[in-house]
Amino acid sequence: MAAKELRAPGTPFSLSFSGSGFLVLYQIGVVQSLLELAPELLKSACKVYGSSAGSLIAAAVVCGISLGKEMGEDGLGVVFYANAREVRKTLLGPLSPKCSLLANIRDVLQCRLPEDSYQMASGRLHISLTRVVDGQNVMVSEFSSKEELIQRYVDGGFTGLQPVSSLEEAVITVSPFTGELDICPRDCPAIFYCFQIFNGSIQISVENLCRISYALFPPSTMVSQLGYQDTALFLCRNSKCYPKTQRAA
């Protein structure tokens, strides 16, 4: 999204968290950076989109779920960190029978989501899903119960990598893959070329090829620090759009 789109005071904007697999650790770093440096951005986003693992981060933003420890209980971020460490110990990675990531995430959501979370999410949280009947990508933004909200994070990344509802909408895009995006890693390939896939932008680079494997077989948790730093750089580049951010940084 071009910076000029947010220059006008009160311009509505949204956030979009791409599908990411275990690179969701990068997006956790992004949210932690925004919480510390520009919390008003998270609060004022009119819509928050999420696909695949990114939908968990989107839900955390909308429903105020902690990513760290809170009152002795593990947040989503802690669960991802712990499971990433366990998966790296096995030869099969996430395919190992010992991997219980989905069950652990479900337990955290059941415990940490408030009972009225579906009301908080309806209309603001937009989750990208793949329709089983015809394989088409659909966007869900209305939820009738907490249980339905938990069920809706089923993978939609294969048909909607970077979810948005309108090309004319002002959206801050977040992805752990380098591309024509707002918050993402910055690589320096010999030839700069991006291709579009499943509504997402990915740059052709050796680093991105490595990241694709990291999405399935988790990298070091240091990747969350990269997400934090890339977000801080984004805020600095757009300081005229976010004057409060400049003081916070």
Automatic annotation (TrEMBL):
Entry's Gene Ontology molecular function annotations: triacylglycerol lipase activity
The keyword Membrane belongs to this UniProt entry's keyword annotation: yes
Entry GO terms, CC: cytoplasm; lipid droplet; membrane
Signal peptide start-end: none
Record-annotated membrane-spanning stretches: 12-28
Record-annotated PNPLA domain positions: 15-181
Protein's UniProt keywords contain Lipid metabolism: yes
InterPro entries: Acyl_Trfase/lysoPLipase, PLPL, PNPLA_dom
GO BP terms: lipid homeostasis; triglyceride catabolic process
Keywords (A to Z) from UniProt: Lipid metabolism, Membrane, Transmembrane, Transmembrane helix
Pfam family, one: Patatin
Motif (GXSXG): 50-54
Name this polypeptide is given: Patatin like phospholipase domain containing 1
Organism of provenance: Phasianus colchicus
